[in-house]
Design brief:
- Keywords: Chaperone, Endoplasmic reticulum, Signal, Wnt signaling pathway.
- This is LRP chaperone MESD.
- The chain is of the alpha+beta class.
- The radius of gyration is 25 Å and the shape is extended.
C-alpha cells in the first residue's frame, strides 16, 4: 500500500495519480468522451449505393471531425481571402452547418466540420461559388467555378500528381534508381 502523504507534499505525479483514481470511478457519458474514444456509429449498409463511392464515405465520416481545403481563385491577398471565406462560412452557418475556418495562406483556407457526413453537401456549395478555385476533400481535388481552364481537370488526386512527377523525373534521368549502395563512382 502507498504511504500516506500530506496533500501539501504532493508532486505532479501524485496529483496525476489522484486524478486517475477519481476519473476511474466516474461514469462518463459517451457524448462527453473524446472523439477517438467514442465507439463508431453503426453503418446502415442498405443506404449505400454501390455506384457512388461518395455515399460510402458520407456514412463512414458521419459524426467525425473532417477538414477540407479551399483555394480562392485569382491572386487574392490574405485579407481578401479572409473576407471571401468569411462570407462562405456565414452562408454555411445560416444553412445550419457547423463550420470553423482557418486561413493557411494568401489564397487557401481550411474548413473544419464537426460532422463529416455533411462534407459533400458543403463541398457542392463551395465549388458553386464564383471565387472558389478548388476544394480538396479526402484526397480528391474538386475544381470550383472560379478555376482556370487548365485547373478544370475533373477529380484529380494529389498523390497521382506527385507520382506522375516522379515518373517523368525517372524517365528523364535514364538511370535506374534503387536503394543499394554501389562501389562504382558515377562521373558527372
Amino acid at each position: 500500500p502507498p504511504k500516506k502523504k500530506d496533500i501539501r507534499d504532493y508532486n505532479d505525479a501524485d496529483m496525476a495519480r489522484l486524478l486517475e483514481q477519481w476519473e476511474k470511478d466516474d461514469d462518463i457519458e459517451e457524448g462527453d468522451l473524446p472523439e477517438h474514444k467514442r465507439p463508431p456509429a453503426p453503418i446502415d449498409f442498405s443506404k449505400i449505393d454501390p455506384g457512388k463511392p461518395e455515399s460510402i464515405l458520407k456514412l463512414t465520416k458521419k459524426g467525425k471531425t473532417l477538414m477540407m481545403f479551399v483555394t480562392v481563385s485569382g491572386d487574392p491577398t490574405e485579407k481578401e481571402t479572409e473576407e471571401i471565406t468569411s462570407l462562405w462560412q456565414g452562408s454555411l452557418f445560416n444553412a445550419n452547418y457547423d463550420v470553423q475556418r482557418f486561413i493557411v495562406g494568401s489564397n487557401r483556407a481550411i474548413f473544419m466540420l464537426r460532422d463529416g457526413g455533411y462534407a459533400w453537401e458543403i463541398k457542392d456549395f463551395l465549388i458553386s461559388q464564383e471565387r472558389c478555385a478548388d476544394v480538396t476533400l479526402e484526397g480528391q481535388v474538386y475544381p470550383g467555378k472560379g478555376a482556370d481552364g487548365n485547373e478544370k481537370v475533373k477529380n484529380k488526386t494529389k498523390p497521382e500528381k506527385a507520382k506522375k512527377k516522379k515518373d517523368t523525373e525517372k524517365k528523364s534521368n535514364g538511370v535506374k534508381e534503387d536503394n543499394r549502395a554501389t562501389n562504382q563512382r558515377e562521373e558527372l
